[in-house]
Amino acid sequence: MTEKTIPMLPCRTLQPVLDFYTVLGFEVTFQQKSPNPYAVVERGGIQLHFFGMKRYDPAQSYSTCYIRTDDVEGLHEDLRTGLKAAYGRIPTRGLPRIGPLKDTSHGVRQFLVTDPGGNCLRIGQPTSQEHHHRPAPEETFSRALHHASLLADSKDDPAGAAKIIDRVLRTADERPTPVRLLRLLVLRADVAGRLGDDETATSARAKAAAVHLTGQERESAHDALERLEELRG
Q: In 3-state terms, what secondary structure has residue 46?
């Protein structure tokens, strides 16, 4: 026996969603207007179905699905390239948007894509056989980054993430390593942008750009530095 799971995701109207997925390299393989709006998009082994709901509010959406890939780096770059070609920039906040690549605490390297209908695609590649969340680190700043990242990405609570980062950066008797400081500031700039706090976002980006890193530190902070460039763009 062979089975296949296909997510069916809501949207207010189909066309903006279909246009978005076309930009991402998907093909619209089915579409109907009546008796109910319904459409299918496909790219490689990914198949997504969408249905229209007139009273649906994308900003309040909790719809999500998970897509597993064996080339998360390549897929992330392909989708970013399509978005930049279509929009002239890579959208990182609002609807639609694409997030950065991140190594999670449950053994997956992933990124998030949110379409115009508010549907979130979690696209990831396993990096470990153990998929339970690892315990939060003991070190003060690593622990804060761990919890802030979970709030910002897994729970969609940028305000909660901002509070954690602001509190830990006010710590008087401890200082983070340059790499930890960079990661905290980049995430602070990211969540400030999502909250529409442009002043804090600009300040955090400037502080992050001013952090001095050795060559080895820059290599270990590659994801954060890449995200900083996106946020500065």
A: strand
